[in-house]
Amino acid sequence: MVVTMKDGCRLHVSDEGPRDGPVVVFANSLGTDMRLWDAILPLLPTGLRVVRYDKRGHGQSDVPDGPYSMGTLVSDAEAVMDHLDVAGVTFVGLSVGGMIAQGLAVKRPDLIARMVLSNTAAKIGTPAFWDDRIATVRARGMAAIADGVMERWFGRDFRATPKLAIWRARFCDVSPEGYAGCCAAISGTDFYTSTSGLRLPTLAIAGPEDASTPPDLVRETADLIPGSKFALIRRAGHIPCVENPAEYARILTEFL
């Protein structure tokens, strides 16, 4: 399915499961597409309506010229949900997807009833870090940073498996312009104040070998929301839904 944004950007959207089932919306990380969630979906309870989408600049969605703003990425998620006429959902966001979740929960509290902040934070990195990333991929392409990103993404156990090559290849297939556009959105985002005003059931998930959003950073963000829960997936890094899908699905199912 294709959903067109107000600015003409077309987003690739997947909407599976019974129309009357509980809705779970998944938002993927920087440098990945909706296939990020493939391994956990068969392990979730039956009867769910599962919505996934490729954010702008990624996967099969359009790649407008950057930079993008976090406001635009939030509005994209909002438009997808309005198009599908879903509200009161469980929104699962990983990395930048978790930032989108925070922004959308503030902007449209009617859309999100529960939130999963996976390997994310209210603020990620520094402008200098993201500026360097943007300059590198625009000058030299995605392969120039791929090995470093794989080390930040995955724990040691996963990096020793043949699956690492699959995710490295997928990362290298991402448009440098789309990646840089989303880097700019992350660079300009600080949700500490707005997220601290949220009051909704929230689960935070972290991996101890995550070099992008370490557990302490994830927990700090979760602690902004009273009553939030925190789960640590052992021997995992930034993308535990890929590294240990069974444990990730178990934790998510318990929250659902």
UniProtKB/TrEMBL annotation:
One of its GO terms (molecular function) is 3-oxoadipate enol-lactonase activity. Residues 22-132 form the AB hydrolase-1 domain. GO terms for biological process: beta-ketoadipate pathway. Keywords: Hydrolase. Its EC number is 3.1.1.24. It is an enzyme of class 3 (hydrolase). The keyword Hydrolase applies. It comes from the Bacteria. SUPFAM superfamilies: alpha/beta-Hydrolases. One of its GO terms (cellular component) is membrane. The keyword Hydrolase applies. This is 3-oxoadipate enol-lactonase 2. It comes from Jannaschia donghaensis.
